[in-house]
């Protein structure tokens, strides 16, 4: 009996870790961290940082965002199951330890928790999270298969958690929009890189993408065009705000992004673009941390 119980406990533990992997808990922590950094350094620069961090309603906003984003990852994995078996077999967990029905149950549970938490903050935050949740579902169900429109949608949903903080504080700070614009452009380049890496599964299951519709060379030219646009948000930020330390991040980012452009020019196979994707993730993660330098 003890051995059977231990097996059950181990299986339950494996399912728990499978759920954590499915909702990409590390991404959720990064998103919540970004919300706190933006709240402290961009939207409340004159308020003592401890007072902002200990705001219980900010905690509820961040927690509700975490549950909504987790539900978005679940529904995305649900619709992408067959495609991911081909493109990312090592990352597919929903069909191994978690059944599709279990995944859907958690999707509805997390959405419900997110909505309830939002209700305790304000109707505006609840409405934003409701629309955000619908948009996550619609992206996974329809928009993701629609080529460049799907890329734009993915980027918009990536930066949406920043905007819920703006809704909560009812304070429109241009600095956060310039910052988000820069991160969004980097993320858009990353979405194109991910499409190149996912061509095999996309062509089998009828997904549209820029690489499939226009070819690798035109996809690269689009990446170059977006890279040329990258200096615009930091320049606008510099013209409006007197900042010093954050310039070090942008200099380092442009060095890394120059390397990305060069590697993109030389890239031919999936492994090459996988390295580029890793570099872009590093630029985005560093960009989130650099908010504290504004």
Notes on the protein architecture:
The protein is mainly α. It folds into two domains: 1-170, Tetracycline Repressor, domain 2 (Orthogonal Bundle); 173-294, UbiA prenyltransferase (Four Helix Bundle (Hemerythrin (Met), subunit A)). Helices cover 81% and strands 0% of the residues. It has 15 helices and no strands. The radius of gyration is 20 Å and the shape is globular.
Structural class, from secondary structure content?
mainly alpha
CATH fold-type name of the largest domain? Tetracycline Repressor, domain 2
Topology order in helix (H) and strand (E) letters: HHHHHHHHHHHHHHH
Biggest sheet architecture: none
Compute the gyration radius: what is it? 20 Å
CATH-scheme architecture of the largest domain: Orthogonal Bundle
- Average of the residue pLDDT scores: 85
CATH class of the largest domain: Mainly Alpha
Instruction: Tell me the fraction of residues in β-strands, as a range.
Output: under 5%
Helix fraction?
Answer: over 70%
Number of strands: 0
Total helical segments:
15
Give unreliable regions as ranges: none
Count of individual domains: 2
Shape: globular
Oligomer classification: single chain
Distance between the termini: 59 Å
């Amino acid at each position: 009996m003890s051995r059977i119980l231990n097996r059950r406990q181990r299986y339950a533990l494996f399912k728990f870790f499978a759920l954590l992997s499915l909702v990409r808990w590390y991404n959720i922590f990064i998103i919540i961290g970004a919300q706190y950094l933006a709240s402290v350094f961009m939207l409340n620069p004159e308020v003592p940082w401890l007072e902002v961090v200990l705001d219980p309603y900010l905690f509820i906003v961040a927690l509700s965002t975490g549950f909504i984003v987790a539900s978005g990852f679940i529904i995305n994995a649900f619709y992408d199951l067959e495609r991911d078996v081909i493109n990312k077999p090592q990352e597919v967990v929903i069909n191994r330890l978690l059944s599709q029905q279990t995944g859907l149950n958690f999707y509805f549970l997390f959405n419900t928790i997110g909505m309830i938490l939002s209700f305790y903050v304000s109707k505006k935050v609840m409405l934003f999270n409701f629309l955000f949740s619908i948009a996550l579902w619609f992206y996974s169900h329809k928009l993701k298969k629609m080529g460049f429109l799907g890329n734009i949608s993915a980027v918009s949903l990536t930066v949406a958690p920043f905007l819920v903080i703006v809704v909560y504080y009812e304070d429109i700070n241009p600095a956060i929009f310039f910052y988000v614009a820069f991160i969004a452009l980097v993320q858009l380049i990353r979405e194109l890189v991910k499409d190149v890496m996912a061509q095999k599964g996309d062509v089998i299951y009828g997904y549209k993408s820029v690489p499939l519709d226009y070819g690798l060379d035109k996809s690269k030219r689009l990446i170059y065009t977006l890279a040329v646009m990258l200096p615009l948000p930091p320049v606008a930020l510099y013209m409006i705000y007197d900042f010093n330390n954050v310039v070090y991040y942008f200099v380092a980012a442009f060095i890394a992004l120059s390397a990305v452009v060069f590697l993109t020019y030389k890239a031919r196979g999936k492994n090459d673009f996988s390295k580029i994707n890793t570099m872009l993730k590093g630029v985005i993660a560093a960009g989130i941390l650099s908010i504290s330098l504004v």
